[in-house]
Amino acid sequence: MRLIFLGVPGAGKSTQGAALSSQWQIPHISMDDICRQAIAKETSFGLKVKPYIERGDLVPDDFILDIIRQHFSDSSAQRGWILDGFPSNLSQVKLLDQLLLEIRAKGNTALSERPYDQVFSFYVPIDVLVQRLLQRGRLDDNHEVIYRRIEVYQEHSTPLIQHYRQQGCLTVINGDRPVEIVTQFLQDSFSKSRLIGNKKTLNARKRLIKAGKQILSA
Question: What are the tens digits of pLDDT across the range 2-18?
């Protein structure tokens, strides 16, 4: 299972990602957590991204992609992964798709399939988001930075969500509900999506077999 979680900080992505990661035994790759851990350790990557995180701006693509590549290349990601907070715009979608196709090609995996299973977009009312973020108590979680993050996300999220909706892999999640209910919704939605996907794959194979028989009998 390969899932992408979209949503503004405070929407519940990381909470759900951690829960499903533990249950399914696949890595939860949270860009916010990765950046903040790097900042705390004062790594070269952390020093690069710190100004963007503190302002509430998007971190440049080239800063992020190598980090994601490292996590996808880890043996723990072979069974699947949950990518949280990336991509954030359409240019990152292209970079991510290219990276995933490269990884699958090296693994001799069929490239006709989509490189991820489902995309979940978390929605929470702005007043709830602000309250959640203020309660976290982080130094950079003040009103100015919080509203800047929301503004940046909304600016880039509309074309991003439209893209995944057109791909037929988007599910919108109401994150303003109890954690357990959201978790169950995610599990049910993924199971349903997987069942539909398996049926489509089976029907496609049947059509190929039927076409092959028609050619042989011609």
Answer: 999 999 988 999 999 99
pLDDT digit string, tens, across residues 77-102? 888 999 999 999 999 999 999 998 88
Concatenating the DSSP letter of every residue in 135-201 gives HH--TT-SHHHHHHHHHHHHHHHHHHHHHHHHTT-EEEEE-SS-HHHHHHHHHHHHHHHHHHHHHHH
Task: Locate the domains of the chain by residue range.
Answer: 2-217
Sheet holding 170-174, edge to edge: 28-30, 81-84, 2-6, 118-123, 170-174
Query: Could you check whether the bond before residue 60 is cis, i.e. omega within 30 degrees of 0?
Result: no
Q: Among candidates 51, 15, 50, which has minimal Cα distance to 136? A: 15
Of 40, 31, 39, which Cα lies nearest the Cα of 65? 31
Summarize pLDDT for 153-189 with one digit per residue, the tens.
888 889 999 999 999 999 999 999 999 999 999 999 8
What CATH class does 2-217 carry? alpha beta
CA distance 191 to 82: 15
Amino acid occupying residue 98: Q
36 Cβ contact partners less than 8 Å away, ≥ 6 residues apart: 53
What's this model's pTM, rounded to 2 decimal places? Answer: 0.82
Residue 121 contacts residue 6 (beta carbons within 8 Å): yes
Phi-psi map region of 141: left, alpha, beta (phi>0 left; psi -120 to 50 alpha): beta
